[in-house]
Design a protein that fits this description.
The protein is an alpha+beta fold. It has 2 domains: 219 residues, Alpha-Beta Plaits, CATH 3.30.70; 35 residues. The protein has 8 helices and 10 strands. The strands form 4 sheets. A 4-stranded mixed beta sheet has the order 8-1-10-9. The protein has a two-stranded antiparallel sheet with strand order 2-3. Strand 4 and strand 5 form a beta hairpin. It is globular.
């Protein structure tokens, strides 16, 4: 499969959140209760049922207040720290660029959460699993765009062969965040910005790290554990998983 990428162009985003709705519908994620947010970002953060959000960022440009929008989701790194940290090999890097957590293999250890330099994966204690954006791999493998891209009314989201997208964006004067980053290599979610008429382009405005190096937890588990084998870590994780569900089941029987 060809190497693909999706790109977000903040200049074109109107903050409609259609991408959020499409993501939730396509992935069958449950609704979550929210409350009013002073920042207008809603939900205020990613979660096990929310794979993407549009952040509303207040900024001042040329002395005038303005909104800066930022779509946030998994970056799908070329060298994902989350996959390197997972002792159960539950995170797979697919041909084409998608980095996917296998729910059936996840043991809920949360090493991936500690390792991710973009702070993306989210833990669900009710299922003892970790969740994040899948890059809509099921759609891509069937010749479709990611759900969020397919509904964007202003073409703030685009999808296609990675090399072509990067080349076209740079040819139009855009700076492409994610083209090459220290520690994680290239990413398959890109951000395209350009400076004209004083528009903001610094990635820090969007909360994007200039040098997203993997955290120490991204070391292979056997290294991080001081020589403890990966098999032992997996076994310990499995035991913890069984104990968790045994206690949960006992509580349910007690309540019944």
């Amino acid at each position: 499969m060809e190497d693909y990428a999706a790109v977000y162009i903040p200049d074109r985003c109107i903050g409609c959140r259609a991408c959020q709705v499409a993501c939730k519908l396509w992935n069958g994620r449950r609704p979550v209760e929210t409350s009013f947010s002073p920042t207008f970002t809603n939900p205020v953060d990613l979660g096990p049922e929310t794979y993407t959000i549009v952040k509303y960022i207040e900024a001042v440009e040329n002395g005038e207040p303005k909104w800066v929008f930022l779509k946030t989701q998994c970056m799908h790194c070329e060298n994902p720290a989350c996959a390197a940290a997972c002792p159960a090999h539950a995170i797979e890097v697919h041909e084409g660029g998608a980095v996917v957590i296998r729910e059936d293999k996840c043991i809920g250890c949360r090493f991936c959460i500690d390792a991710c330099p973009f702070n993306i994966p989210r833990y669900d204690p009710s299922r003892n699993k970790v969740y994040k954006c899948t890059f809509c791999i099921d759609r891509i493998q069937n010749g479709l765009e990611p759900a969020c891209v397919s509904v964007c009314p202003t073409r703030a989201l685009m999808f296609g062969p990675r090399s072509r997208l990067v080349s076209e964006l740079k040819g139009k004067g855009y700076e492409v965040y994610g083209d090459s980053l220290p520690g994680v290599g290239s990413t398959h979610w890109l951000y395209a910005t350009r400076k004209y008429k004083g528009r903001l382009t610094d990635p820090k405005w969007f909360g994007l790290p200039a040098a997203p190096r993997p955290k120490p937890a991204a070391l292979r588990p056997e290294v991080a554990a001081g020589g403890l084998g990966a098999a032992a870590i997996v076994a310990a994780g499995c035991l913890a998983h069984l104990i968790y569900w045994r206690i949960k089941r006992m509580k349910e029987k007690g309540e019944a």
